Amino acid sequence: MVARIVEARRAGRPVVMGIGGHVIKVGLSPLLVDLMERGVLTALAMNGSGIIHDFELALVGHTSEEVEEVLGEGAFGMAEETGRILHEAIAAGARDGLGLGEAVGRRLAAMDLPHAEMSLLLAGHRLGVPVTVHVALGADIIHMHPAVDGAAVGAASHRDFLRFAGVIAALEGGVYLNVGSAVIMPEVFVKALSLVRNLGHEVRRFTTVNLDFIQHYRPRVNVVQRPTQQGGEGYALTGHHEIMLPLLCAAVLEALP
Fold first, then answer.
1. Is the dihedral of CA 60, 125, 171, 194 positive or negative?
2. Which residues, at least 6 apart from 181, have a Cβ–Cβ distance to it below 8 Å?
3. Which pLDDT tens digit goes with each residue over 54-78?
4. What CATH architecture is 2-255?
């Protein structure tokens, strides 16, 4: 797997990663920012929870809550600043024709964030690396906020789907890694792949990887198995993100010149 990542970058082919929010929540963002800065990671996609953890870590250095501690009292998802600022960013971006990731990245760049180095969205904005956000409406805490504009969220996230499809259209000879997303990113990936193949793009020979602490159905089928049946390779690695992702990053950087 490491060899395929190194080969792809040496050949100028993309290395794309789709992540769940837990990858950010456990503090691994600096590793991915480093890969983006080094030109190893050429595009990043995340589900809707990713922007919440990304924003809160950059703003205050930790996430706003633990579900178990606040769900019983009805306080889960009620952080005022998170929903307000993110929805302001999304609404402004939707008006300007931006995708959701680009919209939030632009807003973060305009803020004086004490932990800006933790933000993947800000890194993507700064480096020109595509960071797309794929939302399931009703699945994220900010969808309960009074400032939510479902039309803006939907429009901005749909633009990101099209942008992500453009990334996948160039995946021939590249690598796609699904890290910590059990449902959303595997489904988005397989739909984007079908779309670009339908449009005539040759995307057959590439490598896919699923990395998670439990192997779930959708990543196994929609990332590792089905997409690679016509010439690619699929790998599944099982282990905790806090162990596996640092090892993967270190191995890739050691193998690159």
1. positive
2. 18, 19, 20, 46, 47, 219
3. 999 999 998 866 777 878 888 788 8
4. 3-Layer(aba) Sandwich (3.40)
